[in-house]
Write a structure and sequence with these properties.
Elements (H helix, E strand, L loop, with lengths): L1 H6 L6 H12 L3 E2 H12 L4 H13 L4 E3 L7 E3 L7 E5 L5 E4 L25 E4 L2 H5 L16
Parallel strand pairs: 4-6
Antiparallel strand pairs: 1-3, 2-3, 4-5
Bound molecules: zinc ion (3 copies).
The site of one zinc ion has 6 residues, from loops.
Length: 149
């Protein structure tokens, strides 16, 4: 951890080590979850301090930030590959899925319109087993009553 921070050109602080350590065990955590977890293990750190650490480590390439539409951002230490995510529409649970191609961009548009394409953002949306078991009631979508019958 110390070496990774140094190689990324970041000063080694307790807060940065604590956040990276937490994310090693709990990938795809939100800032809130990280703050809570880090507090339990390493003592008080303000949410502001956590945000600062996350921003610095993301900028330095030590963390990847994923922002599924309509859900809070999540952070992970698995950087440098083109893996994708499965995201639960209900609870936001996020899982890694390897890219079948491996390199960016793994999809090509039918018409590039002259763009140089460097990335295709792929997110698989669905319902996790827990939310399926809950009958989809945790899903933020509104259903008409008839559709339940
Ligand atoms: Zn879920
Ligand atoms: Zn991931
Ligand atoms: Zn892919």
């Amino acid at each position: 951890m110390v070496q990774e921070l140094r190689e990324a050109g970041l000063r080694v602080t307790m807060a940065r080590q604590a956040v990276l350590t937490w994310l090693t065990v709990h990938p795809h955590s939100t800032a809130d979850a990280i703050a809570e977890g880090v507090r339990e293990q390493f003592g008080a750190l303000s949410l502001q301090a956590i945000y600062g650490v996350l921003a610095a480590c993301t900028d330095a390439g030590l963390l990847r930030r994923i922002e599924p539409a309509g859900h809070p951002a999540r952070f992970e230490r698995r950087v440098g590959d083109n893996h994708h995510h499965l995201v639960c529409r209900g609870c936001g649970r996020t899982e890694d899925v390897d890219c079948v191609v491996g390199e960016r961009p793994c999809l090509e548009p039918v018409d590039e319109h002259g763009f140089v394409i460097d990335e295709a953002e792929v997110v698989f949306w669905g319902l996790c087993p827990a939310c399926q078991a809950a009958g989809g009631s945790m899903v933020g979508t509104h259903y008409h009553e008839e559709e339940w019958q």
